[in-house]
């Protein structure tokens, strides 16, 4: 199967990828053999070594060529100091058993204290420990640019940044952000950010396109997109599943999307979204679905525990 692509900097990114959070090498090997050619990884997922063994096994077998696969990873919050960025990238390349990344993202704009031995350092009150040196996102970005110059990363970008933060980096960067990864689904379509990215020719990748139905903090009374009556009506109309509607929603907005699953049947299902498209009435319905959750919708990954950071991206929402 040939998956359509989206321009991402100097590369072409397959529009449907495979999210690797809470998954393992067995699932990634299976996804490769099912036809996935875009994988979204991150150091904080704590599984890159396992995924690396899967990539190495499949690439060395000759069944899939490395150059035919788009692989993303992300710089974690404890590694924002200039001197730590390249070391963090080198660790990810070593773990994933790769010579280069197709895309490397700053995972969040907030910097947390390095050197504690914890990925999420906290104080005695369980409040996240911010980096005492408080490196700015722009300072971190300048170190990311050197990874492009050295060939370790083909493209660099941002994840969960707000518009003003993206704008500041874009105005001052030698290497422009190739991609913005952000939460987007009908309960939080993020249309303003999407429009901003389109105008600046920045690839937009939607994470949690199904609304993260398995998240541990989901309350029983919160709306489930996979069970929403409007989503189900659209699915019935096109003879597809609710999940396929939610993935197609992102594609019809011009986005790439990275759903995650360890189920082989779901892997197949998530790739089987190119034989139908949503019409204007479908898109209008889905674009307005957020109103069921409140006037501004519902951002799942608010991460308000970091609101004391000067670089917290959503201060108006907490």
How would you summarize this macromolecular structure in one to three sentences?
The chain has helices at residues 25-34, 48-61, 82-96, 137-150, 163-172, 191-199, 229-238, 242-252, 264-271, 280-287; strands at 5-8, 11-14, 18-19, 38-40, 70-75, 103-106, 156-159, 179-183, 203-207, 256-257. The protein is of the alpha/beta class.
Shape: globular
Number of strands: 10
Mean pLDDT: 96
Rg result: 19 Å
Poorly predicted runs of 5 or more residues: none
Please give the alpha-carbon distance between the first and last residues.
43 Å
Structural class: alpha/beta
- Hey, roughly how much beta strand do the residues contain? 5-15%
Task: Provide the succession of SSEs.
Answer: EEEHEHEHEHEHEHEHHEHH
Counted by DSSP, the helix tally is 10
In which range does the helix fraction lie?
Answer: 25-40%
Order of adjacent strands in the largest pleated sheet: 3-4-5-6-7-8-9-10
Largest beta-sheet characterization? 8 strands, parallel
Could you describe the 3D structure shown?
The protein is of the alpha/beta class. The chain is 34% helix and 12% strand. The protein has 10 helices and 10 strands. It has helices spanning 25-34, 48-61, 82-96, 137-150, 163-172, 191-199, 229-238, 242-252, 264-271, 280-287, and strands spanning 5-8, 11-14, 18-19, 38-40, 70-75, 103-106, 156-159, 179-183, 203-207, 256-257. The strands form 2 sheets. An 8-stranded parallel beta sheet has the order 3-4-5-6-7-8-9-10. It has a two-stranded antiparallel ribbon with strand order 1-2. Helix 2 links the parallel strand 4 (38-40) and strand 5 (70-75). Helix 1 runs parallel beside helix 2 and helix 2 (48-61) packs across helix 3. The longest helix has 15 residues, at 82-96. The mean pLDDT is 96.
